[in-house]
Amino acid sequence: DNYMFCFHPSKLVEQQDVNFTDCVQIYNPKVKKFLALYDVKSEYQVTSFSQDDFEFSPALKANKSEVFTEIKNDKLKHSKLRLTFKDEIGLEDSFFINKVERGEIIDILKINSAKALLLKFSSYLGEKRQDLLTKEVLIEIENVLTSMLYFVVAYDADKGIESLSNVYKMTTSRNRQRRLRDTNFIELLVDILYFSERMFDLRTLNPNTEITAICRMCNRLLRLVIHQYDTNQQFVAQWLNFFIRQVMDYPNNSIETEETLQELLVKNKKLLDEQINADLIIKLVEIFRTHEKNPKFLNILSSLCLCGEIPIPKNQNEICRIIIEDENNRKFLFVPIKQNLQVMIFYLSPNVNKWFQLQELYGKSEEQDNLQFFEYFLAFLDLLSDLCFKR
Q1: Is 71 exposed, middle or buried (0-12, 13-18, 19+ CB in 10 A)?
Q2: Model pTM score
Q3: Per-residue pLDDT tens over the stretch 234-244
Q4: Cα(38)–Cα(348) distance, rounded to whole angstroms?
Q5: Residue 184 — left, alpha, or beta (φ > 0 → left; ψ -120 to 50 → alpha)?
Q6: What percentage of residues in the chain have a pLDDT greater than 70?
Q7: Are the C-beta atoms of residues 244 and 192 closer than 8 Å to each other?
Q8: Rounded to the nearest 10 degrees, how much is the dihedral formed by the CA atoms of 274, 280, 285, 287?
Q9: What values do phi and psi take at 356, rounded to 5?
Q10: 175 with 187: CB under 8 angstroms?
Q11: Rounded to whole angstroms, how far apart are CA atoms 279 and 320?
């Protein structure tokens, strides 16, 4: 029989959410003297080995390099093995090796099967191999991503294909969300989004083209992978700038990045507290200023101020400082308002440069820019409200 094992630090062994390393290889560049393998119950030392290019195959079979010796089946009667430093330092410096159950093996094999196709597709995009991106390949990739959507919610597609709107109402599988992170599947989805926009101008493509549909599916899968799962949300937050820039670059939201950003930010207090800082807010405003005024700018800033009904004072303060104290930022983001006998709004656009009464603003904006400026004005009021909320 073949065996597959997962590795994790012993100090996390009792925690429900463990970030496993790769099931095929162990590599720890910080350790110079590497490791001894024990049966956890008998403390029988099975083998010891050096750090040099150590690989640990799922089948636990010996290789010719003699980095480790074959572990006979009779040594595998226990489902948990212990991996520790040759010179014992302490339990916190040990690892446990847990035998993977059959259901998890099937999950990992399915993920790896999808990854093989997506990695090849990502390489085509990265190398801009238009000749290899045939209609058949694009349809196959879209089908693979669709099957992974069903996988995350543990839905058996053999029972009949559910509409995607129903899939988002299903309960996500926490174990499968974690496995997709641990197998680097999330990075692969981001790679596809990144290389797609480098190869194609997604702003001008028809929303019904295959490549646009694939980018939408990547965003939909990302949303399910991070849905109500703090650990994955913190992990995906490393690409926050990337998603924000995509929201700005694709105003028609043809690839649904807005929904991904909303899933990432809304009610994610830990992310808002720990990962949003002054440098990030300054970068956001710099991104905003390279585009025309858009209510999405202000909606993003508003989302950083509150977590539901809980204010994030640190972010409220930083946003106030950055957009008010800097004169250029203030001029770009703010909508001038004055009150004489009536409230007046200064309507500034490529075609209009004039004060209007509040009750005139809707009609004028509808006529000039399909309500773009009026929606920006409402988003501006919402931002001011969120900056002052409970302060």
Answers
A1: middle
A2: 0.68
A3: 899 889 888 88
A4: 72
A5: left
A6: 70
A7: no
A8: -130
A9: -130, 150
A10: no
A11: 14
